[in-house]
Amino acid sequence: MAGTQRYLRYIIFALVCLILLFFISSSSVPSRPWQEGKPQDVQPGTPPITPNTQHELPPATAPGERMNATFVTLARNSDIWEISRSIRQVEDRFNRKFNYDWVFLNDDDFNDEFIKVTTSLVSGKTKYGKIPKEHWSFPEFIDQDRAARVREEMKEKKIIYGDSISYRHMCRYESGFFFRHPLMLDYEWYWRVEPSIELFCDINYDTFKFMADNKKKYSFVLSLYEYVETIPTLWDAVKNFTAAHPEHIVKDNSMAFLSDDDGKNYNHCHFWSNFEIGNLNWLRSPAYIDYFTSLDHAGGFFYERWGDAPVHSIAAALMLRKDEIHFFNDIAYYHVPFTHCPTGESTRLNLKCHCNPKDNFDWNGYSCTNRYFDINGMTKPEGYEKEQ
Ligand SMILES: Nc1nc2c(ncn2[C@@H]2O[C@H](COP(=O)(O)OP(=O)(O)O)[C@@H](O)[C@H]2O)c(=O)[nH]1
Ligand SMILES: *[C@@H]1O[C@H](CO)[C@@H](O)[C@H](O)[C@H]1NC(C)=O
Ligand SMILES: *[C@@H]1O[C@H](CO)[C@@H](O)[C@H](O)[C@H]1NC(C)=O
Ligand SMILES: [Mg+2]
Question: Which residues cross the membrane (predicted)?
Fold first, then answer.
C-alpha cells in the first residue's frame, strides 16, 4: 500500500514537471511566428516596425456602371491639409467604393506638394486646372473706385470677408464660371467639396445615379438665412432678370421657399452651397447663363458681397421645378459652424454615423429646411419635433 502511494506521488510529480517544462518552452519559442521578419536583426535603440504595412484596405468597390461625374474643389495651395481632411472623409465614407474623379481648380498654379498629396488620397483620377485670368478679375464694366469704397465701408461695419477682394472673385467664380472650366466640360454631374468639411455617415449608394434616376438637378443638406448686409440689392437684380426673361422661370418652382409675399421681398433663405451635388448641364444652360450674366452686370459681386449660395439657390428655386431639388437627409455633413446630422435614430445607426444628433441644425429657427419641407408638402422625418 505504502509502495503504491510512493509510486503515485512520484508519477504525479513527474507529470507536473513535464507540463511546466512544456509551457515554459512553448512560451519562449513561438511555434509559428505571427510576423514575418527576424526580430534578432533589430538594432538596439531602433523602434520596432509595426506590421501596418499594407497600403490598401481590401477592395470594396461597388459593382456596376459609373456616372459621368466628378468631385470639384476650388482651393489654394495653402488649403492642402484642410482639403486633405475633407478628401479622406469623402473617400472613407463614399468614394473608395466608387472611385470618381476629382477636379481641383485654383487661380494660381498648384504646387507639387498639393498635387502629390491629393493624388495619393483620391481613389479616382485627379485633374488640376488653373482659372483663366478673365474669370478671376474685375470685369471692365465694374467701377473699381466704387468697389474699393464699398470694401472700406464693409470693413468698418465688420462684415465677414467685407474687405476681401479674393473672396469676391471666389464667389463670382463659383456663381458663374467653375462649370465652364475646360476640365469640367468633360462631366455632367458634380459634387462640390470644400476644405475642413466632415461626413459622419456611410454613403453606400451612388449619389450621382440617384440624382439622374430621380430627375434631380440640384441638392443640399443645410439651408439658412443669408446675412442681409451682403446682398441688399440682390433681390432687385433678380426681379430685373425675371422681368426681362420670364421665359426662364418654370411653372412649378420654389418661389415660396424664397419669398413670403409671392416674390415681392426675399426672405433670405438659401441652400448652403459649400455642399452641392448638381447637374453641370443645367448650370451651362442658356437660362442659367442669362441669369448669371444679368446679375454680374448688376455689379453686386463687387459693389456688395453677393455669395454664390444665394445666387445658386435663387436660380434653383426659380428655374428648376420643385421636384428637381433634393434634400439629402442621409448625408451627414459639417462645415463650420453648422452640422446636418440625419433625423431618425435608425438611419443614424444603419449608416454608422458618428455625429451628435443634438448638433443637427435642420429644425433650428435659423434653418430654412422646415420651410423647404412645408412648401413641398413633405412629411418631416420621424423624431424632428424632439430636435426643435
Ligand atoms: N484658389 C483659391 N481658392 C479660394 C480662394 N478663396 C477661397 N477659396 C476656396 O473657395 C472655397 C470657399 O472659401 P472659404 O474660405 O471656405 O469660404 P467660406 O466657407 O465662405 O468661409 C474654398 O474651397 C476655398 O478653398 C482664393 O483666393 N483662391
Ligand atoms: C459627359 O458629359 C459631358 C457633358 O454633357 C459630355 O460632353 C461628355 O461627352 C460626357 N462623357 C461621356 C463619357 O458620356
Ligand atoms: C433694376 O433695373 C432698374 C431699371 O433699369 C435699375 O434702375 C436698377 O438699378 C436695377 N437694379 C439692380 C439691382 O440691378
Ligand atoms: Mg468654406
Answer: 7-25
